[in-house]
């Protein structure tokens, strides 16, 4: 049964993935993925995957986008939910969900190469799954993210897909964002993300693209070269409450940015993470203004530099490119 | 001139390393390190490095451990220190130091293969440099760390060395530890690290080694498989105030752990980071009990798993091995 454990000093929850638990000799094994010719995510190979949870179909009844449970889930919905302590330590049942969103029936590797309508369906699928999972009383957060390419944790199977992880705890980075945004709101009575968007639209030097209600910017203090954030200009805290008419414009700007990253930076590995407000607000008084002070967005991080190990241990990043130059470069149409 | 920029939402400082600024086409270039036969860190090749800052010599006057400035520093001591804001953004001069500690004159790659006396001299060297740098009014922290192996950011030159980065800001992870430890201390009036050590010595299941005043444990909620923390049993907040008689026992336990990691896990890349209290306490009232509530330690993290990209974006880690099993495995003598 998977466990969640809390670091007693900094309060960071970690999944101890016992279902995947490896013995020391199992690390660094050769990848045992099926050869590309037998990709389990392609149309016609549905029998190789666990039963479908959700799908979007075309006019002929064929699926376009499809959600399946992970074969090796980090978290599970079985067993009774429990929490306990031991000395200074806290742990709880690793309750949750781990799902895979297959983004196309064709064997296409990079989301940058999908038609916008598929990307739109992927984001719609995230919303549907989030709204469904929200009903579970123990789940606080759904993380939607993509790992593309080996160096970004994407594995060796080159079929465009992303993942949903539903957790019974709020993630550390999300908490930090909520706290930072709350602190700013308490003083200024304005959303820090809205202020940031206004600043970037005025200054323009880190703006990559502004289109149909969305902006793409290189953040002022990026962790990685060519990091890009995509934000809705209209204030909104919860991604899964996005209007249906906003999905296509969102997909369009995401596709444009991913395609520029692919073309201008030589098809690098990348990750994206959807940052959205959590479902449950542990302290109603504290979180009561969350609708006003948090602003959902997508963070896209290409993997262009070697791993600088100490950054993991310190939260201190060294970015080897000027954000303003990165933005200028990414403004180029391709 | 290097800059430090602060993320306005979560308050994380990032170095924008303009001295290293790369154009997009410069990423993923082939490493231009000299061939191993011309290693600049070996005895006899001192002329290839910048002038020495500090060294420890043997009886014949030959250096054993040597500190040199980085050829491509992230931070510099030149120019006048400045801070400024622009809209919601804060930035400051990237003032600081970036030094390389060459750990042996021989061409030995892994610290695990050095004699204990050399490792002792390396830790002594950290202390000397920290105590010296502490006098600079703008410097708040010195980060001592090691990247070993390509996947840990160690580059291609296989000569055992570590780095010191002196910064005018406190690092995010260090702040979090200080705040977490302070919170615990305020309630319990005990150091959380001391409590953790006692718990581990009682439970024994995550204890790897206890020797001459130091313990090596696998933490309760590790981010990485086979992560190991080494802590002094005697409470102490500042690494650079370590007693000279404690340096050899520290070097000895570090060597033992690094050697076991090398032998038992097939010589993996790894990082270590020395976690110590900052020099300056920005709010004297707040930090006044820092000597009581913080406890220096060294965190060693082998790189055994593929990069799971979303962990960068969320601070949410998935560890694929049980800490108790990792500890049991590392208790094996080799």
Task: Please give a quick description of this structure.
By secondary structure, chain A is an alpha+beta fold. The first copy, chain A, is 27% helix and 23% strand.
Can you tell me about this structure?
2 copies of one chain form a homodimer. By secondary structure, the first copy, chain A, is of the alpha+beta class. Chain A has one domain (3-330): 2-Layer Sandwich (HIT family, subunit A), CATH 3.30.428.10. In chain A, 27% of the residues lie in helices and 23% in strands. The first copy, chain A, has 8 helices and 15 strands. Chain A has helices spanning 116-133, 172-188, 192-203, 244-264, 284-287, 290-293, 310-314, 323-330, and strands at residues 3-6, 13-16, 54-57, 63-69, 83-86, 89-93, 97-102, 141-148, 161-167, 207-211, 214-217, 228-232, 270-275, 297-302, 317-319. In chain A, the strands form 2 sheets. Chain A has a 10-stranded antiparallel beta sheet with strand order 3-4-7-9-8-13-14-12-11-10, with helices on both faces. In chain A, strand 10 (207-211) and strand 11 form a beta hairpin. In chain A, helix 1 packs across helix 4 (244-264). The longest helix of chain A is centred in the C-terminal third of the chain and has 21 residues, at 244-264. The termini of chain A are far apart. Residues 283-288 of chain A have low confidence and may be disordered.
N to C succession of SSEs of chain A: EEEEEEEHEEHHEEEHEHHEHEH
Oligomer: homodimer
Quick one: how many beta strands of chain A? 15
Uncertain segments of chain A: 283-288
Largest sheet of chain A: 10 strands, antiparallel
Count every helix of chain A, treating DSSP H or I runs of 4 or more residues as helices. 8
- The CATH class assignment of chain A is Alpha Beta
Whole-angstrom Rg of chain A: 20 Å
């Amino acid at each position: 049964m998977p466990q969640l454990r809390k670091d007693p000093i900094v309060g960071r929850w970690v999944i101890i993935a016992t279902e995947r638990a490896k013995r020391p000799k199992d690390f660094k094994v050769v990848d045992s993925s099926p050869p590309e010719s037998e990709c389990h995510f392609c149309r016609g190979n549905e029998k190789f995957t666990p039963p479908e949870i959700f799908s979007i179909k075309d006019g002929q009844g064929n699926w376009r986008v499809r959600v399946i449970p992970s074969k090796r889930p980090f978290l599970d919905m079985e067993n009774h939910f429990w929490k306990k302590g031991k000395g200074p330590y806290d742990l709880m049942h690793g309750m949750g969900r781990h799902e895979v969103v297959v983004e196309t029936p064709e064997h296409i590797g990079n989301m940058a190469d999908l038609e916008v309508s598929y990307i739109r369906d992927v984001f719609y699928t995230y919303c549907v799954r989030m709204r469904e999972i929200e009903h579970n009383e123990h789940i606080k957060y759904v993380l939607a993210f993509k790992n593309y390419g080996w160096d970004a944790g994407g594995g060796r199977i080159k079929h465009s897909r992303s993942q949903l992880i539903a957790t019974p705890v709020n993630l550390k980075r999300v908490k930090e964002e909520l706290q930072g945004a709350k602190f700013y709101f308490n003083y200024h009575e304005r959303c820090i993300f809205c202020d940031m968007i206004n600043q970037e639209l005025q200054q323009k030097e880190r703006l990559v693209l502004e289109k149909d209600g969305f902006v793409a910017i290189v953040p002022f203090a990026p962790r990685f070269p060519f990091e890009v954030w995509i934000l809705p200009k209209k204030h909104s805290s919860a991604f899964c409450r996005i209007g249906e008419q906003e999905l296509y414009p969102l997909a369009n700007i995401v596709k444009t940015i991913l395609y520029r990253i692919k073309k201008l930076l030589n098809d690098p590995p990348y990750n994206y993470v959807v940052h959205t407000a959590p479902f449950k607000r542990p302290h109603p008084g504290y979180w009561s203004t969350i609708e006003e002070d948090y602003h959902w967005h997508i963070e896209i991080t290409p993997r262009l530099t070697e791993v600088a190990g100490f950054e993991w241990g310190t939260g201190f990043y060294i970015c080897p490119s000027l954000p303003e130059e990165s933005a200028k470069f990414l403004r180029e149409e391709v």
